[in-house]
Amino acid sequence: MLRAQLRRQSHTGMKGAAEARMQNMVVFSVGGQRLAARTDEIGGVMPWPGSTAVPSDTPFVTALVRQEKGCLPVFDLAAKFNRPMQDDEPLCLVVKHVEGPLAICIDSQVPSLHMVSRSAVQYRAGNDPDIAGTCIAGEEELPIINLTTLGVSSNRPA
Amino acid sequence: MGLRGHKTAVVSSGLAVRFLVALMGSTHVAFPSRWVRGIVIPAEGGQDGHATCANASYERTDLARRLTIQAKGVTSETRIVLYANEQRSRSFVVDKVVGLIDVERALIQPLPAQFRGGERERLLGLFVESSYIALIANPFWVLELPSQNNVLDVFALQVSERRPGEFDSRLRLPSSVLEATPVMSAGATK
Q1: Whether pLDDT at A22 is above 50
Q2: Strand segments (E) across B66-154
Q3: B50-69: string of b/e by CB count within 10 Å (b at 16+)?
Q4: Which sign, positive or negative, has the C-alpha torsion B110, B111, B116, B122?
Q5: Going by C-beta distance under 8 Å and a sequence separation of 6 or more, which residues neighbour residue A7?
Q6: In this structure, are residues A141 and A135 in contact, taking their beta carbons and an 8 Å threshold?
């Protein structure tokens, strides 16, 4: 019994170590620009409900969308990357932003979940604080976007 | 459904604010209605940048430009809102008057924190209606007066103490245009 318990613990430990070497990333696209983000920064995905424009001076934060009884501010990621949104049925990515939930209009292609080896993730500070680095997901090298702090420290176009 | 004599919307309890909701471009903008002195058609708006009504003069302000909203241009639905308090008066063009609506204070949401620019001075918050989201214009900013803290509390009325018709007696709106302005309610009555 003790041997079985030890074996179980050893198996769990190996699994934990393997998981520690992996990172869950979500890959999505905005105006055709493919991006990766950490899974724990995403609150959900829903059909794009349509937005209400807000006359705003804040770069890329110029609209609201309804969510249940309230509404969420919209960060225009397509405008940040200077990509026109051409999708007829876009999706709404709900982000766990440090200042409260935030909506992003993304392409209709459903975001995909990837287990990425930590060695395939490179964090590096660049000119754009909204970009954390790059990762290789499914043979693609993709920029990792900092969704939780989007727009907080950078208001510049990418 | 005229404004006067119309059944006052019933809201469950607590505080409520009555707004005049108007379309500016495609944006629904809500103005606390206590400072609405009238709504006139463009032909009654005066040619010299001033609208005159009941011996009071209202200097014109291009509110759409100040809000950075692209207005639609003059149509049959264009109206001029006369807006004033004891200190100052202004008139401004809206593309359409949607109506009056009572909103429970608790249902008025602040502008999300992600909005960090000058819009925080111009807009007090928002409320969500069944068919639109209305942005609440800061009435002090509209009148080009220094803003105050807790602005909406200045306009809130204790609903439980309000009697039917109370709002109607406060709003002495001069134009016959207003007779067709419907009164709606948001929140508890939905």
Answers
A1: yes
A2: 79-84, 89-94, 96-104, 123-128, 133-137
A3: ebebeeeebbbbebbebbeb
A4: negative
A5: none
A6: yes
B86 φ/ψ angles, rounded to the nearest 5 degrees: -70, -25
Residue pair B111/B126 in contact (Cβ under 8 Å)? The answer is yes
With beta carbons under 8 A apart, name residues in chain A contacting B28. 52
Domain boundaries, given as residue ranges, for chain A: 23-145
Of B26, B67, B133, the CB nearest to A64: B133
A52: nearest Cα among A72, A82, A29, A34: A72
Average pLDDT, chain B: 82
Residue of A nearest to B137 (CA): A55
3-state secondary structure A23-45: EEEEEEEECCEEEEEEHHHEEEE
- Comparing A72-86, A114-128, B29-43, the range with the smallest average pLDDT is A114-128
Chain B CB contacts of A100 below 8 Å = 112-114
Say which amino acid occupies A24: N
Q: Does domain A23-145 have CATH number 2.40.50.180?
A: yes
Spatial separation of the C-alpha atoms in residues B6 and B127, rounded to whole Å: 23
Size of interface A-B (CB pairs under 8 A): 61
Q: Do B117 and A66 touch (CB under 8 A)?
A: no
B27: nearest CB among A55, A75, A97: A55
Count of CB atoms situated within 10 Å of the CB of A93: 25
- Express each pLDDT in A61-85 by its tens digit: 999 999 987 899 999 999 999 999 8
Q: What is the pLDDT of residue B185?
A: 57
Instruction: Judge contact between B71 and B24, C-beta under 8 A.
Output: yes
- φ and ψ at residue A39, rounded to 5 degrees: -60, -40
